[in-house]
Amino acid sequence: MENIVELTQSYRAFGPIIGFLLPFFEAFLPFLPLFVFVFANATAYGLWVGFLLSWSGSVVGAYAVFLVIRKYGRARFMNFMTRHEKVQKLIHWVERNGFGPLFLLLCLPFTPSALVNLVAGLSNIRKHYYLLTVMAGKFVMVFTISYVGYDLRALFTQPIRTAIVILVIVLLYIIGKILEKRLHKKVEADFRLASEERKKRQS
């Protein structure tokens, strides 16, 4: 516990800018562990300051990726993205369903948010509309993780709270995977129906 507290103090010594930049960079480098960054910010800076740093960094990063894809995603050198059948299906589905599914995906910490930003950038969804979606979805996700991680000492001294935290994390992971599978089935069915309608009109 003392080693972790010392590590937290070292992290805090870098200043709040690092707490903003790490979630920001995660949007561009999705292999980075956003869950860990949010947890670290909440532990180092407290619930509310840590939450604001993580949420603002994550939102700005996600929207920056969206804007980059919106501007350059249809350029010739990035055609490999739009030619991918799975991406085409997701783009079509996002354009038809809008806020609801995007919000749910962004709420869950284990959802591949980089793919959500990519697909949203390639779709025709309005810029301000997606910004509001990202702000709302990231608010729920980041606050949940921040609330779980802000009192690190309690995780070591209160086994019941630790068990609840582990249970919440596992449940979020399971719910995310179930939701992904269901959405995937809906995307496939929706795209198949649209393809059939398009063939009928052409014939």
From TrEMBL:
**Membrane topology recorded in Swiss-Prot or TrEMBL:** Multi-pass membrane protein
> Pfam families, from UniProt?
VTT_dom
- Tell me the compartments it is located in: Cell membrane
Q: Which family does it belong to?
A: Belongs to the TVP38/TMEM64 family.
Q: Which residues form the VTT domain?
A: 33-150
- Renumbered to this chain, the signal peptide range is none
Membrane-crossing ranges are 17-40, 47-69, 102-122, 129-150, 156-176
| Keyword terms, alphabetized | Cell membrane, Membrane, Transmembrane, Transmembrane helix
Protein name as catalogued: TVP38/TMEM64 family membrane protein
**Record's superkingdom?**
Bacteria
Q: Which InterPro entries match?
A: TMEM64, VTT_dom
